[in-house]
């Protein structure tokens, strides 16, 4: 690419938000992401990946220096960070390429998970999970198209959400920006990171940072699979009553261990607290408030364990009237105006990837790595927060830089990591710029709820 490398603007914006010293490293970008469109998704993707690679470099003395390696960074920016744009673009569409024994495993979208024309516009449903599907059908009945066409989009949105489902009316960017939830999001930084409680300096565990993964779907799991590629011991906990789609875990779970733990039980909460006492990081990806009744609100966790780094991701952020609302990338695109901008004037459109999920995941990994770096020198417990809606606002506000230079790859083969498993070879898009995983994901319950033994 010519001129200022794509992603440099976002990296420059994020660096001071992370409180990192000096200036970020200069970027050298080669190739094309294949994510070009109406909005500058390539800049978002490259900048988010660069942020976590640069933060990893500070923490680990060279880890995550880029696809071509590179010298250590420093307070003055250090050696350039080399980014392979094709690797980044493929990673942002990684679910499309995950396969086991040559068979694609991506769950895709349920037929109900689409745009539906309404009496005054469009409604986007997310119905991949059975309970969300049941809620949508309870409101709309078996003839969804007919019921949707008879009512206003905002009315249907409210009804589906009230029934426990997931939906969003398609809005124009200005309408969203002027709304109470839009104003609440606009008042937040793209990445919020602060020292929440005092404490002495502390480095990560000897075998790599211990990360308790309390996330689901895409953004949070992308953050933690990224941390796993940087050498973290990532332990994901899932409850026994709401299992994740196995195909999605193939893509988002490499490098991690997966355990089932009932946090609704007293014994499960005691085990979780023992894990937190020995952890470095907890990443939360459930909607704000969902974990509070289990004693896992960020404030409560930091009060009991003031050495931790706690980073929370959500769809809409914790502030404002939508703070506790369910949300997914597709719904955030609809509500914030991205779907309207990407449409053709008659029907809504979508981004070339679930870029809000992936970018927010990489930015969350950057927040974790930056907080670990700062905890090592400044001490204390740290709290970071991000949301897909705030990432959407950044994308909508970013300069539209025009077409990419270069041609994206036709064949993802050179960027795939191939790992053995009992079910056959697992093929995955490798992490962009950080070391590849050495183990695939396994079905939930393949590990006990315990940290890896040192050494």
Summarize the entry for a quick read.
The protein has 455 residues and is an alpha/beta fold.
Protein described:
This protein has three domains: 8-96, no CATH class; 115-185, no CATH class; 186-319 and 354-397 and 409-429, Crotonobetainyl-coa:carnitine coa-transferase, domain 1 (Rossmann fold, 3-Layer(aba) Sandwich). It has a seven-stranded mixed beta sheet with strand order 8-14-13-12-9-10-11, sandwiched between helices. A four-stranded antiparallel beta sheet has the order 4-3-16-15. Residues 62-75 have low confidence and may be disordered. The protein has helices spanning 8-17, 41-60, 85-91, 130-140, 144-149, 153-162, 173-178, 180-186, 219-229, 246-252, 266-277, 298-304, 329-336, 338-342, 355-378, 388-397; strands at 27-30, 81-84, 99-100, 103-104, 115-117, 122-125, 167-169, 192-197, 210-214, 233-238, 256-260, 281-284, 309-314, 381-387, 416-419, 426-429. The protein is an alpha/beta fold. Strand 5 (115-117) and strand 6 form a beta hairpin. Helix 13 crosses helix 16 (388-397) and helix 15 crosses helix 16. The chain is 35% helix and 15% strand.
């Amino acid at each position: 690419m010519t001129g200022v490398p794509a992603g440099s603007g976002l990296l420059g914006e994020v660096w001071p938000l992370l409180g990192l010293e000096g200036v970020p490293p200069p970027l050298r970008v080669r190739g094309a992401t294949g994510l070009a469109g109406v909005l500058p998704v390539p800049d978002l993707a490259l900048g988010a990946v660069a942020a976590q690679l640069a933060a990893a470099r500070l923490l680990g003395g060279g880890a995550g220096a880029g696809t071509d390696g590179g010298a250590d960074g420093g307070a003055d920016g250090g050696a350039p960070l080399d980014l392979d744009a094709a690797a980044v673009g493929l990673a942002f569409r990684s679910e499309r390429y995950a396969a086991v024994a040559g068979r694609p495993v991506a769950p895709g979208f349920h037929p109900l998970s689409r745009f539906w024309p309404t009496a005054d516009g469009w409604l986007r449903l997310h119905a991949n999970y059975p309970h969300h599907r049941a809620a949508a059908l309870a409101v709309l009945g078996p003839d969804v198209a007919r019921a949707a066409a008879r009512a206003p989009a905002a009315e249907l949105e409210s009804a589906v959400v009230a029934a426990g489902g997931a939906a969003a009316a398609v809005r124009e960017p200005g309408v969203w920006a002027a709304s109470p939830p839009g104003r609440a999001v606009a008042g937040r930084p793209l990445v919020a990171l602060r020292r929440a409680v005092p404490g002495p300096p502390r480095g990560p565990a000897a075998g790599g940072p211990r990360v308790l993964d309390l996330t689901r779907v895409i953004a949070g799991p992308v953050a933690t699979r990224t941390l796993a590629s940087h050498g973290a011991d990532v332990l994901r906990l899932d409850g026994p009553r709401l299992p994740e789609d196995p195909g999605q875990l193939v893509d988002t779970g490499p490098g991690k261990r997966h355990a089932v733990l009932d946090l609704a039980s007293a014994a499960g909460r005691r085990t979780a607290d023992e894990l937190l006492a020995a952890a470095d990081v907890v990443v939360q990806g459930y909607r704000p408030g969902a974990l509070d009744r289990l004693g896992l609100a960020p404030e409560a966790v930091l009060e009991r364990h003031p050495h931790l780094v706690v980073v929370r991701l959500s769809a809409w952020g914790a502030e404002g009237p939508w703070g506790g609302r369910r949300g997914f990338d597709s719904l955030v695109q609809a509500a914030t105006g991205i779907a309207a901008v990407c449409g053709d004037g008659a029907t809504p459109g979508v981004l070339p990837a679930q870029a809000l999920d992936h970018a927010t995941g990489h930015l969350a990994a950057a927040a974790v790595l930056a907080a670990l770096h700062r905890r090592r020198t400044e001490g204390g417990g740290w709290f970071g927060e991000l949301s897909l809606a705030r990432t959407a606002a950044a994308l909508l506000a970013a300069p539209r830089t025009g077409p990419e230079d270069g041609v994206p790859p036709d064949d993802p083969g050179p960027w795939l990591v191939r790992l053995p498993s009992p079910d056959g070879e697992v093929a995955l898009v490798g992490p962009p710029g950080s070391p590849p995983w050495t183990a695939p994901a396994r079905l939930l319950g393949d590990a006990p709820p315990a940290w890896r033994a040192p050494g």
